[in-house]
């Protein structure tokens, strides 16, 4: 079963869409971590106790079951109970779908998103991916600061938030540094030529191909290590 991906939202410049989604994907693979046993993704509880699988996919979200059906016949309940597991291509498909959801969310906050430089676009998109569009919308000072391209004020808003103080302090520090300087966050790097995964899934849920960069994600476990 192959997940059909929508094109990037209109606020993403066509010329930078591929680089944005590729670098963002690689950053999220690092920041979210993963739990893999015998080559299969196993569900776990994140730092807030939420059942999660793959690269930060929230199994308890109201829309999780619908997204999952686009990728596999496995159910959220079976995955939470560890009666089922995800293959690497399935986890990658969920990551790509969730990435496009985050991009649509960030575009709703920043209609002129395309005028922001690419490293900061990645920072904002990664924040929406991690915390969701609604929670991101509570950054009342960050959003107008970004719209005004006041990067010191935007950085200060990030650094003074609960997200930075207690939720994900080291992750937030990395994102704030990129917001301040306009440099790409660590691990927001382009994939080698020909190694952008396509996440092919067979109708029976088995891999139809081994992604060429299947071994690329850093071996980094999620919480309690996600603040490192």
Automatic annotation (TrEMBL):
At the top level, the lineage of the source is: Bacteria
For this UniProt record, give its keywords in alphabetical order, as a comma-separated list. Antimicrobial, Bacteriolytic enzyme
Q: Where is this region: Disordered?
A: 183-228
Q: Biological process (GO) annotations?
A: cell wall macromolecule catabolic process; defense response to bacterium; killing of cells of another organism
Biased region (Basic and acidic residues) positions are: 218-228
For molecular function, the Gene Ontology terms on record are:
lysozyme activity
Protein name from the UniProt record? GH24 family phage-related lysozyme (Muramidase)
Q: Which organism is it from?
A: Hansschlegelia beijingensis
